[in-house]
Input
Amino acid sequence: MRRVLRWFPVFLCLAISACSLSHSPSSTANKIIINRGSDTMVNLALAWAEAYAGVQPSVSISVSGGGSGTGITALTDKTIQIANASRAMKQEEIETAQANGVDPKEFTVAGDAIAVIVHPDNPVDHLTLQQVSDIFSGKINNWDGVGGENRPIVRVSRETNSGTHVFFLESVIRLGRKDDKSIFSADTLLLPSSEGITSEVGQNRNAIGYDGLGYITPAVKMLTLAADPAGPYVGPSKETALDGTYPIARDLYMYTDGEPTGWVKEYLDWILSAEGQAIVAKLGFVPIV
Amino acid sequence: MVKRRKLFESVIQFLIRLCGYSAVLFVAAIFIFLLQAGLPALFETSPASLFGQRWYPIENMFGLLPLIYGSFIVTIGAAVISIPFGIATAVFIAEVAPRWMREVLKPFVEILAGLPSVVLGFLGFLVLAPLIRTTLNLPTGLTAFTGSILLAAMALPTIVSVAEDALDSVPKSYRDGALALGATKWQTIWRVTLPAARSGVLTAVMLGIGRAIGETMAVMMVTGNAPQIRWDGLFFPARTMTATIAAEMGEVPGGSTHYHMLFLVAILLFLISFLVNIIASSMLFRAKKRAERMLS
Output
């Protein structure tokens, strides 16, 4: 019996791969949109898909997460119609896609601010970007280094396949400098989900983390940030992200293979319409119009 | 009629033989696939990178040592907790507990084995990790130690159930003999029953450890996944090989260096669990031979 059970996963894998092989070409038969990628965007994409079911019931949209890299890989492998990404595609990813006969087309669908979060009881409430960078790269290891209590700093981050991770690395840790090669300190906790981050930061007074504004819960405290030590220190919100005063804001993207046509184009047009963007605002992200 | 039965017999025999061979075939096929996908990594990265202290695929840093260290320390921690506890539980169930208690305890231990690891991981993240942080006064509760405790909980049912079977199959005459010579109950258990069931108990331990090495979900949720090597690593975050594969396999473009590296990690895991299994079965084999010798 144990022998049989041990092989069960293998059969399961075979069965799943058989299913996924037969799955991909069927998308032309019915009006199906498979939408995968960024975990930051998964709730937003779900809300869009649900609302769109009321607008265009004949189109069925399946949404899943996994990280920006996951979505881009799936688009490159032609298994999905729309990839969600919380960062722009890298040059090498575009080249890989083109080598596979996929021509990625980019749409900016929403904006997002990255909040730096700590435990509510942490006396620190503002930091400069340089301090945040020094904390996450391991140069500052105690909260007293930034005017806080004498406590060790526990850094909390998303996994490396997250677009938020890459965005934070490039625009905060490296402060946007292309030649800067500093990376996250080796003892940074890499948690597989946004929920993991807010719950660890909400429980642990030593912790500092970051996540998209749409995922911040009342259990944590958001820091105000400034690019320049003289200030002004600005907290993350829709308004400050939109007017550019909050220093770490970004765009969220959807990618299609080539210029979209048919119902995929209709869906993207709807997302960019006032109706689609109202949902963006409702979920705590920043509308682009 | 007889001919037909013979034909039927040979068809069945053939099918059964096929099932038997297919197990070997699958292992071989998986290993060949792993080698094919993983070995290119050795040529695409320098040995300096492979033996580096840092695993950070975004910057093409593929140091395997922190991952091996992470798996090692979490597994050792789990073994240290689960082996004494598991064997003691097995001894209690097999030797000490009255019949009715035994009939309650054994199924319950086996239910524990059926708990999905995600559920355990979730409990570990929400309950165990904060508890460990506050009681041990650590910077964070997401540590290798937390993972060890969860893995111990997962390995326990295997160890208890297999070890209990082994203890149970020790002939009653051994115990009677020991008791008749004036040994106490404890002396009988420690000097007679346990040594007699030694091979089965060792198998139990090996199977339990094998389960611990390969476990992924629970570990990924509670160990913090920070790839680092430090002497007091048990009480700090660690990243295991399994968690690395699970967390990163979804995003890698097929055929990239990172992809090959993850398969190289998988080869390492495969070899380790293969080794554990071989050790376990060779122990069983040796014990059987010894028993045969004693009988003749």
Remarks:
- The CA atoms of residues 38 and 263 of chain B lie 4 Å apart.
- Chain B has a mean pLDDT of 88.
